[in-house]
Write a structure and sequence with these properties.
With 192 residues, this protein is an alpha+beta fold. The protein has a domain of 85 residues. Helix 1 runs antiparallel to helix 2. It is flat and about 70 Å long.
Length: 192
């Protein structure tokens, strides 16, 4: 099974809450699917042992040894958790044979067996902004999704400065990647 590349690793390495979680996203819109958090018990136990080791100087060597064991088991457990999450995520995503990106059901044309972006390109209509079809209206005039002014071409709207090529933005507080239309960060709650 090939590894999907449309994911973010949300796993926690904190000793007391160690575990694995992954978020998979559509490469054409803002759809995401998040796997269930899978606790890493060996990492949690060794975390507790390491904290106890600081209380007793005789146990410091044992604390270092348990940390090494936790690191070794963590790699295998992480890969196993990823493969399980990926197997579940494949129910929600399709790999386009043309562009090789992953798309949700809304961005996928089941009849044609390819993503909507590649289908538009094949029909001679270039999608606006690379993905997601930003700015196309019923009259086929490219419009800015922010101010609705007809575009003069280029990456930025000549009226309001909106970046028409970008479908996502980074949270200034925590750095998480959010869909362009998001009003709040889903990780830290920061308002845009």
């Amino acid at each position: 099974m090939n590894r999907m590349k449309n994911y973010r690793d949300l796993s926690s390495k904190d000793a007391l809450s160690a575990g694995f979680q992954f978020e998979f996203y559509c490469q054409g819109c803002d759809f995401t699917w998040r796997s269930k958090f899978k606790p890493h018990r060996v990492g949690q136990i060794t975390g507790w042992l390491s904290r106890l080791a600081f209380l007793f100087s005789d146990l410091s060597k044992a604390g270092r040894a348990t940390g090494t064991v936790a690191d070794a088991s963590s790699r295998g457990a992480h890969d196993e958790a990823f493969l399980e999450a990926q197997a579940e995520a494949q129910r929600y995503f399709h790999k386009c044979p043309t562009c090789k990106d992953m798309f949700c059901g809304d961005c996928w044309n089941e009849d044609e067996g390819q993503c909507n972006n590649c289908l538009k390109q094949a029909q001679g209509r270039q999608p606006v902004g690379g993905s997601g079809g930003y700015g196309e209206s019923a009259d086929n005039v490219q419009r800015c999704p922010n101010c609705q002014v007809p575009s003069q071409g280029g990456r930025f709207c000549h009226e309001c400065g909106f970046d028409m090529a970008s479908t996502h933005k980074s949270c200034p507080s925590c750095g998480s990647v959010m869909p362009r239309a998001a009003r709040f960060c889903t990780d830290c709650g920061h308002g845009f």
